[in-house]
Design a protein that fits this description.
This protein has a domain at 40-163 and 253-291: Bacterial extracellular solute-binding protein, family 7 (D-Maltodextrin-Binding Protein, domain 2). It is α/β, with parallel strands linked by helices. Helix content is 49%, strand content 14%.
Length: 375
């Protein structure tokens, strides 16, 4: 019998039963969450000062997770130094002093030199996004897990957030040849230390928040950090008006999100899935935000702060490549894991970077056509 021929009371009974069945099904498929339920809180620390855009990136990831969890999970992000020093973050997460954190893997370079290959050097011609592709699909993640296991680091690591090529750094005056670098007291980190040391530079590794005060006191002659927004907020234009753009020392770096493995594994499966799925989402958002913010601060420093930007001469870039060749040969002979990572990257780069170079159009040509090389 069709609905049209059913009596009004029969139709009401039928609809009531259907509604009850649907409600029961919904209750089974989508269990309600008590609003009064306290969220699970993860205590995090970044390796950045609170004013730095990198700390903002860490908070962006936390906000994404917090929102996706519907209030069941809360990542509380503290700035560098709140619990431990920036370079001590990995140990603090491993020990459970912190539930997690946000930094760059080059900061753990002293534990195993192979870790610096996620960011230091020319990466066989791969940009940062391609290095992340190698990490996710070319064997890098398994190699990183192997390194952390060898160090007895009980952590869960996610690489994300491809960084644009970093400047050579901030100087008292422009450098035009490799010999101009010799003897300079210079700040950098990771395997970049070895590159610049081979070039005759006196290197001092220090966290981002300490660089500008050191330059102001004359403890450094020059320094590199990362990008226009971070450099401007940290105060580089206050102590230098010369920035040399383009370098191979950290041309392909990215960020690392860390969790204490016991804490991570103890979470419900759906919350672990949220923490994992939020990584590529935050990576894309970070990339887009960086383009907007970095380009804005680059223009502001040129037009308002009186900073002069110069392209690093090819002669210096060539010396970096020569120095890098010596560094990786030495490290590969000393450290089997270093060689293993290096060989994996080389194989991936030969295929992927070759493809990118052959297929990517020269965007500079189009830019010059429309703007006559004026930003």
């Amino acid at each position: 019998m069709s609905d049209q021929k059913k009596s009004p009371s029969a139709r009401r009974n039928f609809l009531a039963k259907a509604a009850g069945t649907a409600a029961g099904t919904a209750a089974i498929g989508f269990p309600s969450i008590s609003v009064a339920q306290s969220p699970i809180t993860l205590r995090w620390q970044s390796t950045w000062p609170s004013k730095d855009i990198f700390h903002e990136f860490a908070q962006d990831y936390a906000n994404l997770v917090n929102n996706m969890s519907g209030g069941r999970l809360k990542i509380d992000v503290l700035p560098a130094g709140s619990v431990v020093k920036a370079f001590d973050l990995l140990d603090a997460v491993n020990k459970g002093t912190l539930d997690g954190g946000h930094g760059v893997i080059a900061y753990w370079y002293g534990k195993n030199s192979a870790l610096a290959l996620w960011g230091s050097g020319p990466a066989f011609g791969m940009d940062a996004n391609m290095l992340l592709a190698w990490h996710e699909f070319g064997g890098g993640k398994a190699l990183l897990d192997e390194i952390y296991k060898s160090l007895n680091m009980d952590v869960v690591s996610f690489m994300y957030g491809p960084m644009p090529t970093q400047p050579l750094g901030w100087f008292k005056k422009p450098v035009s040849r490799a010999s101009d670098m010799k003897g300079l007291k210079f700040r950098t980190v990771g395997l970049s230390i070895d590159i610049f040391t081979d070039m005759g530079v006196a290197v001092n590794a220090m966290p981002g928040g300490e660089i500008v005060p050191a330059m102001d006191r004359g403890l450094l002659d020059a320094a590199e950090f990362n990008n226009a927004s971070s450099d401007r907020l940290l105060g580089f234009p206050d102590v230098s008006k010369v920035c040399m753009l383009q370098s191979f020392h950290q041309a392909s770096e990215q960020f690392e999100i860390l969790f204490n493995k016991k804490r991570f594994d103890a979470l419900p499966a759906d919350l672990r899935a949220i923490l994992t799925s939020a990584v590529p989402a935050a990576s894309a958002e970070m990339s887009w935000k960086a383009i907007d913010r970095y380009s804005t601060d680059y223009r502001e420093m040129r037009e308002k702060d009186g900073v002069k930007f110069y392209k690093t001469p090819d002669a210096i870039l060539q010396e970096q490549l020569k120095a890098w060749d010596k560094v990786i040969a030495k490290k590969a002979a000393e450290n089997p894991l270093f060689k293993k990572v290096l060989d994996s990257q080389r194989d991936f780069a030969q295929r992927a970077a070759g493809w990118q170079n052959d297929t990517t159009v020269n965007f500079r040509m189009a830019y010059d056509h429309y703007f006559s090389r004026k930003a």
